[in-house]
């Protein structure tokens, strides 16, 4: 093993994801402002905040779906590569689940999940199928393996998307508002899968409006507003005693409904 997988000083796990001084502009709009954030191996960090605060851009920057203007992002001790094969390898280490499910409509559920391991990792078909079926079972939809995406509910499709990301055996999973496109009754079936992943020790960065999930599964809540990290704390501390006025205002609006 290389030194990046060893423990940091003091016996705590070394940061698996580390952002230092990250800035991002869209034209004149400064969407990420000097972001410093480190996520330890096995940690679940939930990012919350008002719309337009930079949460999704932060998530997308971590696997270079968005480039950054300045600063550094490291994964497991290595700076994010610019492009080419090294970037493809990085993306295999960073699983991503979006608001929309982005499944291949013309492929079965099983084919959707096996495609990445076979094409990117060179896994043999039989091995990829075995892995895919175990992951579909893990997310509770192994009986749907032969169906097409259009035959599944939104909640089921999102669980396929999670299984597909897990099939690459990533080091960290990014979730960008994974339940925001779902009908209310389907939200919990996806959140339950995510809670299970958290309990299994998967490193996760989750952008979400689901405060119940943040309370139940997060090790740390990061609150963003206006492109900045305003405060971060353990869930109970954040929800019961937010320090910043901006967080107090945000919580007063969402927790009273």
How would you explain this protein's 3D organization?
The protein is an alpha/beta fold and 257 residues long. It has one domain (17-255): Rossmann fold, CATH 3.40.50. It is built from nine helices and ten strands. It has helices at residues 55-62, 84-93, 109-119, 125-138, 154-166, 184-199, 211-217, 235-240, 245-254; strands at residues 15-26, 29-40, 44-48, 70-75, 78-79, 94-97, 172-176, 203-207, 220-225, 228-233. The protein has a six-stranded mixed β-sheet, with helices on both faces. Strand 7 (172-176), helix 6 and strand 8 (203-207) form a beta-alpha-beta unit. The longest helix has 16 residues, at 184-199. Mean pLDDT is 90; it is low at 1-12. InterPro entries: AAA+_ATPase, ABC_ATPase_HisP-typ, ABC_transporter-like_ATP-bd, ABC_transporter-like_CS, MetN_ABC_transporter-like, P-loop_NTPase. Its main location: membrane. Belongs to the ABC transporter superfamily. It catalyses: a polar amino acid(out) + ATP + H2O = a polar amino acid(in) + ADP + phosphate + H(+). Residues 17-251 form the ABC transporter domain.
Topology readout:
Blueprint: E1 15-26, E2 29-40, E3 44-48, H1 55-62, E4 70-75, E5 78-79, H2 84-93, E6 94-97, H3 109-119, H4 125-138, H5 154-166, E7 172-176, H6 184-199, E8 203-207, H7 211-217, E9 220-225, E10 228-233, H8 235-240, H9 245-254
Parallel strand pairs: 3-8, 3-9, 6-7, 7-8
Antiparallel strand pairs: 1-2, 1-4, 4-5, 9-10
Helix pairs in contact: 3-4, 3-5, 4-5, 5-6
Membrane topology: Peripheral membrane protein
Protein name: ABC-type polar-amino-acid transporter
Organism: Sanguibacter keddieii (strain ATCC 51767 / DSM 10542 / NCFB 3025 / ST-74)
